[in-house]
């Protein structure tokens, strides 16, 4: 009866996706499991170095300090696969947009887009309705940083981004879960206007995100595991 109830709930939640994961007393499987995670959140970055360099220029002496940035929204999508029970590889797509204001200059809009290849180390805990999957890993990949003063053409910079990530997915059903993730990313983009260089802005920073994960059921040979 319990198995039938689980199947009914999972079918209703994922529109006929198979109820294949955790039986009672078993941890959620991670080996041979694919997932798609879509997240939104906030990118926390002050860009103090960018502001300080601009305000320290001799021609800007006496200007009132500009209000510092408080960050910007972010959007991310991850496509990953557990090649073993402890190791997951994936590709993460992301985009972020931020508006900055330098004293005496038009409004500056910066953006960053990219794709990161990630290697995550994960496990499984018997927590929650269908288990908890914590993870931590490293990220690297190309990033396109764009900066444009209002009414002017953007300055685009392609750079290499490096980062680290940590988080966890709480599986609410065998295929649906909630994911919370923190990322730290290192990347910078150039700012120019009509041949004048303004330095570089921080295109990375600390990222905090929440989202939804859809997990593809493993094959018949990949049952739930009973150890982290």
Radius of gyration: 22 Å
* Oligomeric status: single chain
Number of strands: 10
- Into which percent range does the helicity of residues fall? under 10%
Account of the protein in words:
Strand 8 and strand 9 form a beta hairpin. The longest helix is centred in the first third of the chain and has 13 residues, at 2-14. The strands form 2 sheets. An 8-stranded antiparallel barrel has the order 1-2-3-4-5-6-7-10. The chain has 228 residues and is mainly β. The protein has 2 helices and 10 strands; from the N terminus they run αβαβββββββββ.
List the helices and strands and how they pair.
Elements: H1 2-14, E1 34-44, H2 48-55, E2 72-82, E3 87-100, E4 108-122, E5 132-149, E6 155-171, E7 176-186, E8 188-193, E9 196-202, E10 205-216
Antiparallel strand pairs: 1-2, 1-10, 2-3, 3-4, 4-5, 5-6, 6-7, 7-10, 8-9
What brief labels describe this structure?
two-stranded antiparallel ribbon; disordered C terminus; 9% helix; disordered N terminus; 2 helices; 8-stranded antiparallel beta barrel; 228 residues; mainly beta
Summarize the structure in short:
The protein has 228 residues and is mainly β. It contains two helices and ten strands; from the N terminus they run αβαβββββββββ.
């Amino acid at each position: 009866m319990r198995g039938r109830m689980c199947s009914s709930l999972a079918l209703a939640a994922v529109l006929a996706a198979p109820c294949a994961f955790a039986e009672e007393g078993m941890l959620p499987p991670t080996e041979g499991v694919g997932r798609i995670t879509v997240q939104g959140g906030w990118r926390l970055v002050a860009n103090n170095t960018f502001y300080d360099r601009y305000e320290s220029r001799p021609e800007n002496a006496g200007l009132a300090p500009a209000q510092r940035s408080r960050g910007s929204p972010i959007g991310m999508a991850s496509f990953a696969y557990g090649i073993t029970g402890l190791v997951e590889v994936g590709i993460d797509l992301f985009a972020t947009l931020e508006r900055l204001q330098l004293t005496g200059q038009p409004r500056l809009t910066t953006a960053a887009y990219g794709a990161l290849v990630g290697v995550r180390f994960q496990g499984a805990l018997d927590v929650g309705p269908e288990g908890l999957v914590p993870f931590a890993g490293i990220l690297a990949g190309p990033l396109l940083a764009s900066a444009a003063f209002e009414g002017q053409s953007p300055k685009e910079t392609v750079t290499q981004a490096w980062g680290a990530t940590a988080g966890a997915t709480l599986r609410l059903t065998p295929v649906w879960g909630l994911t919370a993730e923190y990322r730290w990313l290192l990347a910078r983009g150039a700012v120019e206007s009509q041949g004048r260089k303004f330095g570089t802005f921080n295109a990375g920073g600390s990222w905090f995100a929440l989202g939804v994960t859809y997990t593809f059921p493993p094959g018949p040979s990949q049952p739930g595991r009973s150890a982290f």
